[in-house]
Amino acid sequence: MGRKWNNIKDKKAAKDKNTSRIYAKFGREIYVAAKSGEPDPESNQNLKFTLERAKTYSVPKHIIDRAIEKAKGGGEENYDELRYEGFGPAGSMLIVDALTNNVNRTASDVRAAFGKNGGNMGVSGSVAYMFDSTAVFGFEGKSADETLELLMEEDIDVRDVMEEEGQTIVYAEPDQFAAVQHALNNAGIEEFTIAELTMLAQNELELFEDDLATFEKLVDAIEDLEDVQNVYHNVEL
């Protein structure tokens, strides 16, 4: 594959600068996952996956517990999962995932963020075809060769295993997320720098000067929206 994970790493690092925003987004996501089935991660795979992701962002236990208790108590808030697609400067592309209890508000906010910051909204499917849904894991403690061998022994098909900046990165099919994580846990890997289902651009774009500044302003404006959970793009940062 030869695809670097810097895009994901930089996105995570940028988000980590605003931990209160991260915690609020995870609180909402955990609540939705817990409400979608049993509020027990052992019987609710969606919740289990969300909690594992929260762990990589160091979401405090009290925030997790509060969201699950809210779901147990039959919270009346209902959220819709939405995806928007759009364009930034110089051919840049963005995918925006949101969780919202007010579809009209979110659509208006996302459209305004694009329009006021050098971008424009696209129709459904205008951008997504240039991205691949991918499970990504980053960790230390095992080489790429060792990792590939142990995953092959478990009969898990991965897209790529590589070493980047002192870490081993695994790229796999989205439906292999749980299998990869389980195999790595069994091999003694308990801590991950990243454990995500993400959208990776098939081809990355390099921007310069004014275009790059405009693009970064656009992404910041979208990520600052309360209902936005994730922003994916094709720009090499």
The CATH superfamily of the domain at 6-72 is known as Integrase, N-terminal zinc-binding domain
Which structural category fits the helices and strands? alpha+beta
Low-confidence stretches: none
Please tell me how large the radius of gyration is.
Answer: 18 Å
Oligomer: single chain
Proper CATH architecture of the domain at 6-72: Orthogonal Bundle
| Counted beta strands | 8
Strand order of the largest sheet: 3-1-2-8
What is the end-to-end distance? 19 Å
Overall geometric form:
globular
Sketch the major β-sheet.
4 strands, antiparallel
Order of helices and strands: HHHHEEHEEHEEHEHE
CATH hierarchy, class of the domain at 6-72? Mainly Alpha
**Which whole number gives the mean pLDDT?**
90
Name the beta content range.
Answer: 15-25%
The CATH topology of the domain at 6-72: Arc Repressor Mutant, subunit A
* Tally of DSSP helical segments: 8
Share in helix: 40-55%
Domain TACO1/YebC-like N-terminal: 3-74
Domain TACO1/YebC-like second and third: 79-235
Protein name: Probable transcriptional regulatory protein ERX37_08750
Subcellular location: Cytoplasm
